[in-house]
Fold each of these.
Amino acid sequence: MTIAGQVSKVEVLKKESRALRGGLAEGLADGRPAFDEDGYNLLKFHGIYQGYDRDSATERKQSGLDKIHQLMVRTRLPGGRLSAAQYLALDAVADRYANGTLRITTRQTIQFHGVVKAELKQTIAALNRALVTTLAACGDVVRNVTTVPAPIRDAVHARLDEDARRLSQHLLPATRAYHEIWLDGEQVAGVQEDRPEEDALYGTTYLPRKFKIGLAIPEDNSVDVLTNDLGIVALFEDGVLQGYNFALGGGLGMTHNKPKTFPRLATPVAFVAPDDLLDAAAAVVRLHRDHGDRGNRKHARLKYLIAERGEEWAKAQLEAYLGKTLEYPREVPRFEVVDHLGWHEQGDGLLYLGLPVASGRIADRPGESLHTALREIVSRFGCDPILLPSQDILLSNIAPENRAAIDEALRGHGVIAVGDVTPVRRWSLACPALPTCGLALTEAERIQTPLIDAVEERLARHGLIDERLSIRITGCPNGCARPYAGDVGLVGRMPGFFALYVGGDFAGTRLSFNLVDKLAENAVPDTLDVLFGLFADSREAGEGFGDFCHRLGRGALLSALAQSARKAS
Ligand code: SRM
Ligand code: SF4
């Protein structure tokens, strides 16, 4: 419980941290395998999470051994854009300092797992040598800005790319602590040297909680724009930017059985003119900074403020920060989600290729050496990777004459051809969960492949194998793989059990609802089988699975499940 006016411990820590320095330099040098609690909390602002190997923890404890402490390091890559040289540098970091894998996140960046404290400084330095920062990849600040991934060479995509970079740069904390601690004062990627240490935007206490920005166009909502604290929808007419609809207060984290916490999609608040983008985005950040709950971190996201105070209030606040009135949001066309996988033309004579990556884990596995294949292709053909919010990867700037050789290299490394991946596998997402995530209640990434195998079998039974369907799996209700925004969400409930969510839409404009609260992991495929059967029999023309579940509603779906259970017994 929070006493009115009382701030949380993290607020005190931020305030006393001297612009995010705290005791990190001393902690780094103390020879211990892990940072203390204050270090743990401050590290996040530097893009680092301290955790431990959960697989071995219990057994080690029983044997009187300490946990295996490990760090996760997250980069900040606006719009997921990397040059070939940067990708190769990241690839080398994965092998030299992490667990030999690169993990594409649902926010278009790369994470490394398994870094040890003794090599943390070298890891961060190696990333920065490739001009990749980790500053503000996590923490109570604006995180990685996401945008439409397709490298189409037209005015619309060029503008989105540029806007994502400008937003990211404009909203970076001004602290020099990052390069003092990790880079011995050297120039850092993403940090503006000419900005004073005084942080006009973040002050000394930063934001009450994390803050996310997504930038989309209605024609391509692959970033799930409405799940962001600030969802920006750019509106173009004949390739000319008209301005941006600002939707505020999206966010998915919740706690089971705590109805005061809930997922929410951002709601439209104002229309912003092209020249006002950066100031207006900063105004939304200031709104969160000044009015967000600093006493209860479970109630501190912008979404609670918008849900409680309303869009009119938010609009008036933004107008006060900006000193001008804002238009009401404009009508937007229906959202679409574009499939970027496979070969596509960029529009400048070059090609790009989208490759599926199961739960974003770029790794070599028996029979499929994706990690090696990507390294070889990127270094041989110089193609620049782009990371997708669907945890997949695009290789851009490919000369058409190299297409056959790239296909051949992929085949040679056993990488499954895009055309052979079913839509359900292609669109599934899974968060890391066990063994790295300290908050996981269940598996997610490690059960994704077997679960999708089983689901494919059920879909095939009903003639639905070519159906476009998104299944999103998370190990807890925090929602890192956006499980409440797709057709089907499986949300870790307790070890071996998931909450089943259905009824969201593919385009990310409607949240799903909880259909079954505690479903045993091994009962998931057969439960979906019943719903797929119903869908195959009684869907309307052109209706997606999420839309179908939404139309039928919880009651009808539950009675179908009950009827099927009676038949089986
Ligand atoms: Fe997340 C916390 C992984 C996207 C909501 N998230 C975590 C941590 C850092 C666990 C922790 O706090 O100890 C996870 C690290 C696991 C590990 O082992 O690496 C983690 N989140 C991820 C990633 C890697 C999942 C993935 O499969 O890719 C994504 C990294 C994104 C990035 O590059 O920045 C990731 N997290 C998301 C998203 C989706 C999105 O942003 O599009 C959400 C839902 C949207 C939202 O923010 O509400 C999300 N993560 C959370 C929350 C719930 C926040 C809340 O408001 O309650 C937490 C827990 C927290 O912050 O306390 C969390
Ligand atoms: Fe961890 Fe939960 Fe996020 Fe999965 S959803 S990565 S289990 S915090």
Amino acid sequence: MATQTKRALITGITGQDGSYLAEYLLSQGYEVHGIVRRVALEDPSNRLVRLSSILEKLHLHSASLESFPSLYRVISEVRPDELYHLAAQSFVSYSFEDSFSTFSTNIDGTHSLLECVRDLVPECRMYFAGSSEMFGHAAEVPQSETTRFYPRSPYGISKVTGFHMSRNYRESYNLFIASGIMFNHESPRRGFEFVTRKITSHAARIRHGARIKLPLGNLDAKRDWGFAGDYVKAMHQMLQQDQPDDFVIATGQTHSVREFCQLAFEEVGLNYEDHVVVDPRFYRPAEVHVLMGDSTKAREKLGWKAEVTFPDLVRMMVQHDLEHFSRK
Ligand code: GDR
């Protein structure tokens, strides 16, 4: 008997992770659906740019995390086998500027989806995108699934809440809900507001002759940076297990923002010290100083490990931006 095509629904499909995940699921033979905002459907050349190469293979539905009825309608229409909840207000800095909208989108949006799954498709397997920002001011290095959460931003708090809600729905209603505690993951598709892409885009533009400085905040913050294309595979793996569980997904190495700058500028033959200026506007009211993940559990249970190394990641992003800005 032929096996039935699995149907996946992705929130946040227009983002970095959503686009890599959609490509990966298509390559695995899935029927891929995505939730997008109505304005994205009206302006596909700008808002769906990361999906441009696969757009005709996708089924897109307009809905908003802020509207329970819109989510309810899409989930009852699609009836997914797997739901990947990636959409969020994901920029940590912005969460300090508007904690109310961050809480509303990230907490209420997650709550709405959990309730839709419970009511409409209790057999559906759901992935919740947790974050290393949940560890925040962590009491130990490296951080694993047993490390205590101490979030340092409204964003981190919203993710801790989403994580606990997901676990509670799993335990209370016997649903298959898995959470990834994902450390920073980057790529040429990263938004320009995040520090890695900010650095690689500036390095490339300066190489091409732009007379600009690169204003940054805390150069000593350390992050565990991996490649987003590797991380979406772990999301999929989590939903193929016998039991739902939570997993740290990380490279196990940590590097400072300064080291990222150094490598990125070296890649274009420049010295970062000649181009970076420290600008207090980019400091955060409360900083997370060091993150480094221990993904032993993911390695042992999912057979997952990060493939792309830190220098290769920096090189990939810089080379992409050199090409990207040569066309501007
Ligand atoms: P982060 O990513 O907050 O770790 O969250 P981001 O790239 O924004 O910051 C990383 C570190 O760099 C420092 N920094 C700056 N950051 C930005 N954005 N701009 C600057 O100019 C700058 N200067 C220094 C920051 O202070 C910070 O320490 C990312 C997001 O993708 C989250 O959604 C996700 O959950 C986590 O990673 C894992």
